[in-house]
Each structure stands twice: as structure tokens, then as C-alpha cells.
Amino acid sequence: MADGKRRLAREDWVDAALAAIAEGGVAAVAVEPLAVRLGTTKGSFYWHFANRAALLDAALARWEERTTTAVVDEIVNATEEPADQLRTLIVRVIEAAERDRVGPALLAAVGQPVVASAIDRVTRARVGLIVTVFTRLGFPLAEARSRALLAYSAYLGHAQLAHSTDGVLPDTVGGRRAYLRDVIGVLTAGASDS
């Protein structure tokens, strides 16, 4: 382009918004600072989005797809035994919780209706997936729901610890394996298929 600014795709803005949320929370999603960050003009933003709210909606949808929808699809369609599905799910989400800085930032902004709506969808989908896995393990539905809530609460606590308190979670390969074994053991105690 003649002015030296590169033409950006919609996805570039969405990725920049997610990076801003991870670094500074939902309030950090502002058009002008994002344009500076991307080395472009606000005009590029308005080519792709009507306003900040539209960008925030797109960023939340991308986060939901990456962290929830794709995982749900993978686990629901897995051909593994239920106990292996649970292990795969736990390992995947624990590793993701340690990398995902957007989730904790969104939880801090749950008072905003658009964020609350996204968190509600994600939480319901995640808990629903865990219920499905526990019912596949042979637990009655009520117990599967109870264990799913326990598992999801443990996940949220793990994510909080991973982002707030260095050195609390195991950081060696052996320590992580023992930790994951303990988590799975607690969650599946009494399972007919574990």
C-alpha cells in the first residue's frame, strides 16, 4: 500500500483483540491501540467491523471455538474407551489452562453481559462434555453431573493457580504424571469402566 500500512484480514484484528484481552483484560480491546499494535490505521478496523462490540463478539467466538467447541468435537467423536477419553480430556485441558490467559481475563470481566454470555455457553458446553464422558464411564446421570461439576471446579482452580502462584503446581515430568493420576483417580473412583 502507498502509505506503508499493510492490509489486514479480519482474523488479524480478532487475534490482536485476544492478545489484548490476555494482557490487559477486556478493557484493553480498543480500536486505536490495536491499530498501533498491528501497524495499521483505524480505517482497516472499520473495513472489517462496525464497532468495538463487533470485534469483541468475534474475539469471544474465536476463543470459544478454540478452547471449547474444538475440544468437545474431538472428545465426543473419539473412538477411545471412555477412561482414555477422560484422561485425554484432563491432560488436554490442564495443559491448555496453563497457556490460556484469555479465560482468566474473561472470568474477571464476567459482569459485562457479552462476556457473561460467552462464559455461560462455554461453561455449559464444557460441563456437558464432562457429564457425557462420565456417563460413558458408567456413572448414573446424577452422579455424572456431580462429578462433572467437581472436575470443572478443579479445572478452574488449576487455571487460577497456574496464572497466579508460581511453584504450587508440579513442574517435573514425574510430578505432573503423579498429579494427573491423582486427579483422574479422585474423579473416577468407583467407575465401572476405569
From TrEMBL:
Its source organism is Phytohabitans kaempferiae
Query: What is the top-level taxon of the source organism?
Result: Bacteria
Cite the HTH tetR-type domain residue spans from the record. 7-67
Keywords (alphabetical) are: DNA-binding, Transcription, Transcription regulation
- Protein name per its UniProtKB record: TetR/AcrR family transcriptional regulator
Residue numbers of the DNA-binding region are 30-49
Which InterPro entries does this one have?
Answer: Homeodomain-like_sf, HTH-type_TetR-like_transc_reg, HTH_TetR
Q: Which Pfam families match?
A: TetR_N (PF00440)
Q: Keyword Transcription regulation on this protein?
A: yes
